[in-house]
Amino acid sequence: MTTIKASCPTCGDVELTPPQVRLVVCTVSAWSFYAFHCPECTEEVRKHATDDVVRLLTTGGVPAEHWAVPAEVLEEHVGASISWDDVLDFTLALEDTDVLAAIAGAVPTTRHLA
């Protein structure tokens, strides 16, 4: 079985097998990473996976999980963020059944006679 050498920030160099390594390849290459639990201290170690690291790990037998980032995440957002007060105001407005009933009653219905 292939041995993969990695480094833990606490323990230093460690040896791993392919099943001990998780490789996530993202459509945004800067977000790709590999992770493992250090066999010495059991802490999770997560590091950026460059294209070269992805190539090395996959040829070493580590299966790649593919992660497609939704387009909405990459959109530019402008304006202020929604606050908790905004969420509360929205929730309270939804609970006001009189307003919703008035809106529902304002829409004329069409009857078709057969």
If you had to describe this structure to a student in words, what would you say it looks like?
Helix content is 31%, strand content 26%. It is of the alpha+beta class and 114 residues long. A hairpin with a 6-residue loop joins strand 3 and strand 4. It is built from 4 helices and 6 strands. The protein has helices at 51-59, 71-74, 84-95, 97-106, and strands at 4-8, 12-16, 21-26, 33-37, 44-48, 64-67. The chain is elongated. Strands 5-4-3-6 form a 4-stranded mixed beta sheet. The longest helix is centred in the C-terminal third of the chain and has 12 residues, at 84-95.
Structural Rg: 26 Å
Order of helices and strands: EEEEEHEHHH
Distance between the termini: 76 Å
What does the largest sheet look like? 4 strands, mixed
Q: Which sequence of strands runs across the widest sheet? A: 5-4-3-6
Mean pLDDT: 89
| Low-pLDDT segments | none
Q: How many β-strand runs?
A: 6
Strand content range? 25-35%
Contiguous helical run count: 4
Derived from helix and strand composition plus strand pairing, the structural class reads alpha+beta
Globally, the shape reads elongated
What can be said about this structure in brief?
This protein has 114 residues and is α+β, with helices and mostly antiparallel strands.
